Amino acid sequence: MALVDPNGSGSVTFQAFIDFMSRETTDTDTAEQVINSFRVLAGDKNYITAVELRRELPAAQAEYCIARMAPYAGPDAVPGALDYKSFSTALYGESDL
């Protein structure tokens, strides 16, 4: 979190997220890099919520993710939890979306 929130405010601006993603994806993206980016947005949780996506991403990108992310079914799931890990691996052909 310190990489995207260097002043310790407890929130990540979209510009900070873009800057982080730019540093992380110099030549090629990998599923692991995208997973790590979602993990940052999710506050290090194993899932992300629609509220978090809508708060941190442009509307069209948030809605794209929300429409395509499967519900998260882990033991720490909360109502509306979304599985960003399976979504990310599917984007890179490592699983089916």
Q: Concise description?
A:
This is EF-hand domain-containing protein. Helices cover 48% and strands 0% of the residues.
Low-confidence stretches: none
**CA-CA gap between termini:** 28 Å
Number of strands: 0
Which class best fits the helix and strand makeup? mainly alpha
Hey, roughly how much beta strand do the residues contain? under 5%
Order of helices and strands: HHHHH
Number of helices: 5
CATH topology of the domain at 29-91: Recoverin, domain 1
Major sheet description: none
Rg calculated over all Cα atoms: 13 Å
CATH architecture classification of the domain at 29-91: Orthogonal Bundle
Helix content: 40-55%
Give the overall pLDDT as a whole number: 84
CATH class of the domain at 29-91: Mainly Alpha
Domain EF-hand: 1-27
Keywords: Actin-binding, Repeat
Pfam family, one: EFhand_Ca_insen
GO molecular function: actin binding; calcium ion binding
